[in-house]
Amino acid sequence: MKIRTRLTLLLVAAASIIFGLSAFLMVQLLERNLYTTLDNSLTNRAHSLTLTLTEIEHGVLTRPIPLDHPLTLGGTRIVPLVQLISKDNRVVASFPTGITSPLLPASTVSLATHHDIYLNATPKGFSGEYRFLLEPSSIEANRTLVIGRPIGADAQTIGRLTEFLWMGWILIMLLAALAGNLISRKALAPIEHIRLQAEAVDAEAESITLDIPNTGDEVEALGKTMNALLVRLHKVFSEQRTFLSNAAHELRTPLGSLLLELELADQESRSKEELLGAIKGALTTTQAISKLNDNLFLLAVLDERGEYTTQESVDLADLAYQSASIREDLAQKKGASIEVSGISSAVIKANPMQIMLAIGNLLDNAIRHSPPQGKVIVTIESVNEGFRISVSDQGEGFPPEFLPIAFDRFSRPDNARNRKDGGAGLGLAMVKAITEAHGGKTEIASGNGKATTVSIWLPGTK
Question: Which of 70, 207, 239, 352 makes a 20 to 30 Å CA pair with 331?
Answer without folding.
Answer: 352
